[in-house]
Every structure is written in structure tokens, then in C-alpha cells.
Design brief:
With 295 residues, the chain is an alpha/beta fold. It has three domains: 81 residues, Winged helix-like DNA-binding domain superfamily/Winged helix DNA-binding domain (Arc Repressor Mutant, subunit A); 99 residues, D-Maltodextrin-Binding Protein, domain 2 (3-Layer(aba) Sandwich), CATH 3.40.190; 102 residues, Periplasmic binding protein-like II (D-Maltodextrin-Binding Protein, domain 2, 3-Layer(aba) Sandwich). The protein contains eleven helices and eleven strands. The protein is rod-shaped. Belongs to the LysR transcriptional regulatory family.
Length: 295
């Protein structure tokens, strides 16, 4: 790495054009200026100036180093200016949440980005463990998870809750939640399907034992916006958060069975403890809290 102080002395010398005046400008002695130039030449491994009496000329290497040094100083000035500015309407925002919440929140984020094109929203749908690891590794700055953490590494805020829905075809004959007929009808599984169904089972059926292997499976899909498609065609049932259900295009083809005991998922906004976020996250966080606390 080039010594910053020596490089600054060299740039000043080139711009002033005189050793004595450079020394006066930098509050140094003339031998001190000469010493800085000599050390910089040793560091660069090549002569930077050619003395001609009381004046000097830059060598090709000196000219190249001067251009580099000027650009480096300008880059540093711009960086410091940007750090001090912290523009709330410019920069990248990295957010992670479940697929259902991503479908619900993303249009609102895009509206904000339309109003302020210098904002760039990076939204990833992921399960809880992936969100937690992503925040820990700084891949995401904020995330939404469905359980609290006993970990001082994170700051978490409860921001709302979301119901799990048992979704069946619109022509499903039973309005009541009958376990035997439902489980034999066939389950459309998905990455969180087993977990969601287990929560519904434990909250609504008298037997606490849940054996996923004994439930008829009618299919599996990992694309959130496609999970309800086989349900709408009468091929089975599934369990999804209510926001995923509300986003489905063919509402007349599905219905939600009433549950004696509604299962609610708590929603927590997660971020690193003691890590200040840029001002551009303020609107994103306010939007999330406003939309999810309404439920």
C-alpha cells in the first residue's frame, strides 16, 4: 500500500511546482519534502521526478502516479460526502421474509421505488432459519420471522400476527373440519406444508399425535403462487398463511374451512442488535409495521 502522507506530499509538489513553496504549504521543511519524495520513489520502485536545476519534470511513472493519486483523493472526498449525507431516498435495501409476506409486501415496496428510483429493493422469500442466518452474515439487513429468538445478537420487535388457513376446493362437501375425510382427501404439500398442518392438527384435534406419513398426499410444489392451483382444480387441500390465500387469483375456486381454534403465527421484525441502519430503511420498516399491524 502506498503511504498516504508521502503521496499527498508528492501531489502537492506536482501542483505547486516548487519544493520550497510545497514545504511552506504543508508546514514542512524542504528536506522533509525531498525525503517524502525519495521514500515514495523507493516504495514505487522507480523514479517519479527528474530534477533540472531548481525545477523538475515528472517521469512517465510520476505522471501515472499523480493521476492515480488525484483520483484517489477525489474518490475519498465523494465517499466521505456520501457517508455524511445518508440519503433516505437512495441506496439498496436488503429484506427477507416468507413467500406469503413477500407477495403481500412487494407491491408496496415497488410503489416506493417508483417514487424514488434511486432506491433499490432486494426482497428474498426464505424460511425462518435462512432469514436468521442471512441477517447474521449481513446478507439481509432486516427480516420477518414467525417465532421469537432467545439470542442477544438480534433485536426483534413483534409487529403483528397471521392466521393459518385450511384451504379446500370451492365444492368441497364438508364445511366442518372433519379430520378423517380431510386427511383422506389428499394434501398438497409444499416446503412449509408439514409444519403448518401439524400446527393446525395440534390446535384442533383431540389426539395430540400427528403422523404425517399416514396422511394421503396429492402432490408437492415449492412455488408459492402455484400451491393453490391444484386445490382450485379439486385435487386436494393445503394449509397456508392467510396472505398467501388472499393473493390467489381464482378466489371463486377455493374456500377456507372454519377452524374451532384458529392458529396464529406471531410476526417479528428482526435485525442485528446495535447495528444502525441507513435512513433509507426507515420508510421500509414503517411500511412493514403499518401493513402487518393492521391485522
Amino acid at each position: 500500500m502506498l503511504n498516504t502522507q508521502w503521496l499527498h506530499t508528492f501531489i502537492t509538489l506536482v501542483e505547486v511546482g516548487h519544493f520550497t513553496q510545497t514545504a511552506e504549504k504543508l508546514f514542512m521543511t524542504q528536506p522533509g519534502v525531498s525525503q517524502h519524495i525519495k521514500k515514495l520513489e523507493e516504495q514505487a520502485g522507480t523514479p517519479l521526478i527528474k530534477r533540472i536545476g531548481k525545477r523538475f519534470e515528472l517521469t512517465p511513472a510520476g505522471q501515472q502516479l499523480y493521476q492515480y493519486g488525484v483520483k484517489r483523493q477525489e474518490d475519498e472526498r465523494q465517499l466521505l460526502s456520501q457517508l455524511l449525507a445518508d440519503d433516505p431516498f437512495s441506496g439498496e435495501c436488503y429484506v427477507a421474509c416468507s413467500g406469503s409476506l413477500a407477495m403481500f409486501l412487494y407491491p408496496h415496496f415497488l410503489s416506493h421505488q417508483q417514487n424514488y428510483p434511486a432506491i433499490s429493493i432486494h426482497l428474498e422469500s426464505a424460511p425462518n432459519h435462512r432469514i436468521i442466518e442471512g441477517i447474521k452474515s449481513s446478507q439481509f439487513d432486516i427480516g420477518i420471522i414467525t417465532h421469537s429468538l432467545d439470542d442477544p445478537y438480534f433485536e426483534q420487535t413483534q409487529i403483528g400476527q397471521e392466521a393459518l388457513c385450511v384451504v379446500v376446493p370451492a365444492n368441497y362437501p364438508d364445511e366442518d373440519l372433519d379430520k378423517e375425510s380431510l386427511y383422506s382427501f389428499g394434501f398438497i404439500n409444499h416446503p412449509d406444508g408439514k409444519h403448518y398442518l401439524q400446527q393446525v392438527h395440534l390446535a384442533n384435534f383431540s389426539d395430540s399425535h400427528f403422523d404425517f406419513n399416514k396422511i394421503t398426499k396429492s402432490g408437492y410444489i415449492n412455488q408459492l403462487n402455484q400451491i393453490l392451483l391444484p386445490v382450485s382444480k379439486g385435487l386436494g387441500f393445503t394449509v397456508l398463511p392467510e396472505k398467501a390465500v388472499s393473493q390467489f387469483s381464482y378466489q371463486d375456486k377455493i374456500k377456507t374451512l372454519p377452524l374451532p381454534n384458529t392458529v396464529m403465527q406471531e410476526l417479528y421484525l428482526l435485525r442485528k442488535q446495535h447495528r444502525p441502519l441507513p435512513k433509507r430503511y426507515q420508510h421500509i420498516i414503517e411500511t412493514i409495521i403499518q401493513l402487518l399491524s393492521q391485522d
